[in-house]
């Protein structure tokens, strides 16, 4: 049945001119199997590989190509589609379209819809591996990620031009899976203020060296993106990390634990939900050298002093009714140590991840959380992407 009105599971699928364009047909079907209504917009180059007739037949919906097309007379299609979509998914996304999106160019129907669109966006690139590695493309993707777009990284393997490397469109199941995760996000944090600490801290030893840890900041980044998707007003106090933080959030960059404490304390009074995803260095060198420590002595001793417990300080300073939540990286699945930590820090709940399990936690793209609540309840996320874990956690905390 032809139907299109505002609905969360309306997907506008943008298809660009890549050899992988043929796989967008399967993707459209997979999204429909998952309950989505799919409308396809092709770029003119995509039409060299696939046709409007194919997508109209598959989806039972109109397919757009030219910037001035208007299938429903009197309605400006680019505005109509942008307003009514719950997700704009571009797969395959070419280097050219990614660059035009990042620059805000609107010179065909797909980029015009994108420029009028304010909702959730997912980009699945596909191209030659050298093109994918090019600095211009990396920058454009980073720009889109910082504006809140989710990127489904291409897979490694043989690409159509015969080269090997990262550039193959991710699998249809993977793209549809991420689309489902993004579409499933509720608006439970609408109007709420969320404060997140993220990434590692760096504690100077001298002017060129520091003590730090392996935190990538990916979980904090996923939490910030998820909280924005769920409608929150988000502030992230982040230690040094290359994980992309969304522009839609207020970002406070810090280096040391003491700076992180100061940055977060200054903002905690407003927050309804505070999440400590940072891997704070527990100790710092007692008296960092002003210059560079020289290699003269055969041995040096570094005196370390304890850093403040940031999340515990935030729990005491937060407004009444605010939920303050920590993370606990534990070297095993045992929830008992986490319960002790939760009580010691005065938290509402603590999200435990088992850092001894392979493929999750530090620097990984996936995680598996057990949410231990002060009221005694316990929930398990199962193994999922960090974004899916973040949404899962926020749904529990925001409700
Ligand atoms: N945390 C913090 N400030 C610190 C240490 C930890 O805010 N100085 C926060 C982390 O962001 C996390 C939680 O406390 O949310 C638990 O961190 P973890 O390193 O597991 O706990 P520690 O208190 O350091 O306990 P231990 O090292 O004994 O496991």
UniProtKB/TrEMBL annotation:
Q: Which reaction is this enzyme known to catalyze?
A: N-[(R)-4-phosphopantothenoyl]-L-cysteine + H(+) = (R)-4'-phosphopantetheine + CO2; (R)-4'-phosphopantothenate + L-cysteine + CTP = N-[(R)-4-phosphopantothenoyl]-L-cysteine + CMP + diphosphate + H(+)
Any GO molecular function: FMN binding
Active site (catalytic residues): 161
* Signal peptide, first to last residue: none
Provide the residue span(s) of the region labelled Phosphopantothenate--cysteine ligase: 194-399
Query: What name is this protein filed under?
Result: Coenzyme A biosynthesis bifunctional protein CoaBC
Give me the Gene Ontology terms describing cellular component: phosphopantothenoylcysteine decarboxylase complex
* The enzyme's E.C. designation: 4.1.1.36, 6.3.2.5
What is one GO biological process annotated to this record? coenzyme A biosynthetic process
Keyword Secreted among record annotations? no
Q: Which residues form the Flavoprotein domain?
A: 10-177
Where does this protein hold CTP? 282, 292, 308-311, 327, 341, 345
UniProtKB keywords: Decarboxylase, Flavoprotein, FMN, Ligase, Lyase, Magnesium, Metal-binding, Multifunctional enzyme
Region (Phosphopantothenoylcysteine decarboxylase): which ranges? 1-193
> Does RNA-binding show up as a keyword for this record?
no
Q: Which InterPro entries does its entry note?
A: CoaB-like_sf, CoaBC, DNA/pantothenate-metab_flavo_C, Flavin_trans-like, Flavoprotein
Tell me the route in metabolism or biology where this protein functions: Cofactor biosynthesis; coenzyme A biosynthesis; CoA from (R)-pantothenate: step 3/5; Cofactor biosynthesis; coenzyme A biosynthesis; CoA from (R)-pantothenate: step 2/5
The cofactor remark states: Binds 1 FMN per subunit.
Task: Name any cofactors this protein relies on.
Answer: FMN; Mg(2+)
Q: What exactly does this protein do?
A: Catalyzes two sequential steps in the biosynthesis of coenzyme A. In the first step cysteine is conjugated to 4'-phosphopantothenate to form 4-phosphopantothenoylcysteine. In the second step the latter compound is decarboxylated to form 4'-phosphopantotheine. Catalyzes two steps in the biosynthesis of coenzyme A. In the first step cysteine is conjugated to 4'-phosphopantothenate to form 4-phosphopantothenoylcysteine, in the latter compound is decarboxylated to form 4'-phosphopantotheine.
Tell me which residues make up the DNA/pantothenate metabolism flavoprotein C-terminal domain: 189-396
Superkingdom of this protein's organism: Bacteria
Family per record: In the C-terminal section; belongs to the PPC synthetase family. In the N-terminal section; belongs to the HFCD (homo-oligomeric flavin containing Cys decarboxylase) superfamily.
């Amino acid at each position: 049945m032809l139907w299109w009105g505002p609905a969360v599971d309306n997907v506008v699928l943008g298809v660009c001119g890549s050899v992988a364009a043929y796989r967008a047909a399967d993707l459209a079907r997979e999204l429909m199997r998952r309950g989505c209504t799919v409308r396809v917009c092709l770029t003119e180059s995509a039409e060299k590989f696939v046709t409007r007739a194919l997508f109209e037949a598959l989806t039972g919906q109109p397919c757009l190509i030219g910037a001035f097309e208007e299938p429903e007379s009197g309605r400006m299609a680019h505005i109509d589609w942008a307003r009514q979509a719950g997700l704009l998914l571009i797969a395959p996304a070419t280097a050219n379209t990614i660059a035009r999106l990042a620059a805000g160019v609107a010179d065909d129907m797909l980029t015009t819809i994108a420029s009028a669109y304010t909702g959730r966006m997912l980009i699945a690139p596909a191209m030659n591996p050298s093109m994918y590695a090019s600095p211009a493309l990396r920058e454009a993707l980073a720009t889109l990620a910082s504006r809140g777009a989710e990127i489904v990284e291409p897979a490694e393997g043989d690409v159509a031009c015969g080269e090997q490397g990262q550039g193959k469109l991710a699998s249809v199941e993977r793209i549809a899976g991420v689309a489902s995760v993004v579409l499933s996000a509720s608006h439970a944090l609408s109007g709420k203020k969320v404060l997140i600490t993220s990434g590692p801290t760096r504690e100077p030893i001298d002017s060129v060296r520091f003590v730090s840890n392996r935190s990538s900041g990916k979980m904090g980044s996923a939490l910030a993106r998820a909280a924005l998707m769920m409608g929150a007003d988000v502030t992230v106090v982040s230690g040094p990390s290359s994980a992309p933080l969304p522009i839609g959030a207020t970002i406070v960059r810090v280096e040391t634990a003491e700076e992180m404490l100061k940055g977060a304390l200054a903002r905690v009074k407003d927050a309804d939900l505070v999440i400590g995803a940072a891997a704070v260095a527990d100790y710092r060198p007692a008296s960092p050298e002003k210059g560079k420590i020289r290699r003269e002595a055969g041995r040096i001793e570094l005196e370390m002093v304890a850093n403040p417990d940031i999340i515990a300080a935030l729990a005491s300073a937060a407004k009444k009714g605010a939920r303050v939540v920590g993370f606990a990286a534990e070297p095993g699945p045992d929830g008992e140590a986490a319960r002790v930590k939760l009580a010691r820090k005065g938290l509402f709940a603590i999200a435990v991840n088992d850092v001894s399990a392979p493929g999750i936690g530090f620097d990984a793209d996936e995680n598996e959380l057990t949410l231990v609540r002060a009221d005694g309840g316990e929930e398990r996320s199962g193994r999922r992407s960090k974004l899916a874990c973040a949404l899962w956690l926020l749904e529990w905390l925001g409700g």
